[in-house]
Amino acid sequence: MTGRREDLPAGAPAAARRNAAGVAVVVSAATLISLSLVLSRLVYEAGGNPETLITVRMLVFLAAIWLLARATGRSLRLAPAERPVARASSQIAARKTSIRTVISVSGLPPAS
User: Fold this and answer.
1) Are 75 and 69 contacting, i.e. CB atoms less than 8 angstroms apart?
2) Residue 7 to residue 20: CA distance in whole angstroms
3) Which residue, among 49, 63, 71, 102, has the nearest Cα to 5 in the 3D structure?
4) Which of 35, 37, 39, 93 shows a CA-CA span of 20 to 30 A to 28?
């Protein structure tokens, strides 16, 4: 099953369509992750740095998510009840990243 619309008849149950879409997403993600690893080596050999590579990866990911949301007719906005949780988790992630950066830059061994 490739997840294409031709593989499922028009009257197929919604669960079968979701299953096909899920399989297509998983196969696409695995392919893109492996492609990303191959392309990152080429970028480094061409003189690229990690910051540029991460920025480009994130921009491509955001563009893909935006296109997916656009194609499915969904919004990227969070519901008001979900916003505090998202804000808190992003602040925790940012602080953890900042602490790791300070530790790696200062040369101190990380605390266990």
Assistant:
1) yes
2) 9
3) 71
4) 93
Tens of pLDDT, residue by residue over 66-109, are 888 888 888 888 889 999 999 999 888 888 777 766 666 566 55
E-state strands within the chain: none
Q: Name residue, tokens 């921009």.
A: 59
Task: Count how many residues are written for the chain.
Answer: 112
At 9, the amino acid letter reads P
Residue whose C-alpha is closest to residue 39's, from 62, 64, 56, 59? 56
Please tell me whether residue 60 adopts helix, strand or coil conformation.
helix
Query: Residue 49 corresponds to which tokens in the numbers above?
Result: 């740095």
Kindly state the tokens that stand for 46. Answer: 């061409």
Cα dist. 65→52, 55, 68, 70, 92 in Å?
Answer: 20, 15, 5, 8, 23
Question: Is the pTM value of this prediction over 0.90?
Answer: no
Alpha-carbon distance of 18 to 3, in angstroms, equals 9
Closest CA to 60 of 27, 35, 88, 93: 35
